[in-house]
Design brief:
heterodimer, A: alpha/beta, Rossmann fold, Dimethylsulfoxide Reductase, domain 2, Barwin-like endoglucanases, 6-stranded mixed β-sheet, B: alpha+beta, Ubiquitin-like (UB roll), Alpha-Beta Plaits, 2 domains, two-stranded antiparallel sheet, 9 strands
Chain lengths: ~750, ~230
Amino acid sequence: MIKSDRVTTTTCPYCGVGCTLQLHVKDDFIYKVTSPFDSPVNHGNLCVKGRFGYDFVYHPKRVTTPLVRRYLLEGKPKPEGREQVFAVSVDGKPIPDSQISNDWDWLETDWDTALNFVADNLTRIYKRDGSDAMAVYCCAKATNEDNYLLQKMYRALFRTNNVDHCTRLCHAGSVVALQQATGSSAMSNTASQVVMNDVFIVTGSNTSENHPIIALQMKEAVQKHGAKMIVIDPRRIDLVDMAEMWLPLKPGTNVPVFTAMAYVIVEENLVNHDFINDRTEGYTEFLSSLETFTPEYAEEISGVPAEDIRKAARLYANAKNAAIYWGMGISQLSHGTASALALINLAFLTGHIGRDGTGLNPLRGQNNVQGASDMGSMPFHYPGYMRVDNPENRAKWEKAWNIEEGGLSLKLGLTTTEILSHAHEGGIRSLYIMGENPMMSEPNLNETRKHMQHLEFLVAQDIFINESGAFADVFLPATPFAEKDGTFSNTDRRVQRVRAAQPPRGQSRPDWQILCDLALRLESRLGLATAHWTYSNPEEILREMASVNSDYAGITYDRIDKVGLIYPVPTLDHPGTPTLFKESFPRGKGKFHQLEYVPVMEEPNDEYPFILTTGRLLEHWHGGTMTRNSALNEIYPEARVEIHPADAEIHGIRNGDPVKVQSRRGEIIVRATVTEKTSVGVVFLPWHFAEAAANLLTNDALDPQAKIPEFKACAVQVFPARENDLPNPEIDVHRGRY
Amino acid sequence: MTETITLTIDGQEVTTEAGKTILEVAREMGKDVPTICYHEATTSNAVCRLCVVEVEGQRVLQPGCIVKAGAGMKVQTRSERVTRSRRTILEMLSSTMDLSEAGDIQSMMYDYGASSSRFPDAQRRESDVKDDNPMYIRDYSKCLLCWRCVQVCAEDAQYTFAINFEGRGFETQIATFFDKPIPETTCVMCGQCVGVCPTGALKPKREFLLESGKSPAEISVMNTGKKQRKPR
């Protein structure tokens, strides 16, 4: 029996649920993870990633020494072409790749050298090309403190708002819609309130795989509290087993289905007139836009029987307490904002918002995507969602950061996808990536690759050299969650502590320390008055942010030592706000939005007859930087495309056969899983696997307001392929319970 | 207003809310009622019988974890009969299974003067360690069939139903359907079962490897995401 040296309580680094973890450590080695049964979010339950998926911390491929390219270290001119170089051998000597110029070799160096190269090059580019040449990706996996510092660095030192992170690729549509309609941009209620629902809708979310602990609570609501669950999703996801109804809509037809539900609610007078009169505006105009959205019209477009739409509408409207939980099936579309607005309209019509057990609940993906957004890691907002184009907001942050009046930029920045598409002469010249992996997570990766190659200077701050870091000029080794202190804000706005269980491995350093060190070097090169970069601990960073962002004003590390606080926490004695909008919406009245049906950008045709929809798996996490360097990869080692038996038969595809999936933008070879989990005409691919990256195929069409790409629908063809065409023909592990 | 009841536990009168179990009331009074299968996060099933108490007027000892405290009840939590019963249960457990990692049970044996050699001829329930997945191992020599793992895999938490009892009587074991290896079952490897196991029968693979003498460095290169091969 092992006796632990210490047990560190912290917060899970995977999804937005924010489970409490206890890391059991022996000789600076985590050998076990448990969770206390009184933990507020997860009640002691964990999923495979949280309980077993921490071993990436010790993976031999983890980089713990600063790396720079040979050309930099040897003072040579930058070689032509930017190549992906992953290999750094365990003893630190570069592995030569005969195809690639030696000048791109990764050489180990010390922090001073690496940070000076970064500071020199960023300063050089900024002095030459100005603010518009600079851009940064913050990180939804890093802490609030890390994100606050990085956006501060770019805003305060380079005077640019080209600051974004992967929220753009997941819930940007939901955030924009919620802000337009309510003035807020987070879940209105907590996930644990699901047991208080009488009826709830789960749509565009494969909750069992992507928010496993919330799925347990949903199942509990159904099984033990008599709630009725309505699943509206193109895939027959695990939750369908316990659902009252399943409405399998065609990908990208959310607006007609949900607006037809609104039509039924109005037609049958199931509306909550008091709520509409007291709390909303724009109802009359909204009514006039409903006319075309009959359930029959929606059936024609979405394939969901009109009668089911009626039944679902009645269930939702007639419930005492009803809530909507949604995921990326709503937001990752070229009309993602409209899809989310369609859901918001439903809540306004019925008044299922502003009470416990109701609400509009976008389930946020990453452990700290809510927090990173709160911290202003976005091109339009300072921390606290304060618009950057508002001079009053600017003045507040200028004061906080010791910046001359009018020094900060009022110009809206570029979004994640735009930053890369502007990577050319006269556009973005340098990019700083903290912990993200655009070379996996952006749509249309063949295009993304070209953009990455067009950058003049790229910094990666990460724990592994991932598909994006492989293009970098300098690699700064940061520490993972287990080696740093800070806070994460989970999907239901609960700000929780992250604690180091062990010292940083090798020379790696916590992100906040790297950023402060770099910022000081930049400041001296730029000759700026200091914006304050000397913090003795992460709490000082949080307090600086909270001094301007009132949502976090009442949060101190002391108060969240045992149990997190749910913001808004405006004062030091405020207990937190689990349910939003009880009295009013931040924008005053909730605003109905008139919607029209816009089809997905790329509809199937004879040449590309299938709709490809992408998503995630229980065993993996996003771009795979963590989970593919973990034992998790042993239980789910390869991507497989899901195809319906009827489609498979027509194309002569059997379960396990290799197939080529091709879109207008790219192709990949994977094995097929023939399953009724997907619908006829729809194929599904997980996007975690670099060797068969689903995002080579996806469409980079953007939602006009939220700028979120259309990951959830593009047209593809599926052909039989040969075993030897597979990236790893020896693997054939069909797994995954869901 | 919640209904309150009054009962007597070990001669002390106590007034409490109706609906609680005897175990809950006794523990609130600071009584030391030992339990093994009981867990705050699972449904109580009175499997281990260690929490039995003597209730006046009842023919047999009553399991405190499921019997509700009733008005006027007279309860003994540590009478001679109760103590003998608990001691015998502990002695039978220790004669048939490996309690080496069940620290709580070992201290109970000390408290109750239970001797692990009382039943020297008892047949031990021994089986090989099942090491069939990269996440956790199952060592049923250490399993006392408390049922918690089955419960959290089912309605108490996960709704996955990957494991259940298999066999009858002495042969009873926790097993997957048809005793298939974990990766071939409905198991999602959440490890809720590992989290509630009281005896170390279920254990994270990395803890198991560390115990078996592997160094952290050796373990770290074992799980490097190498691919499993499976013949088609």
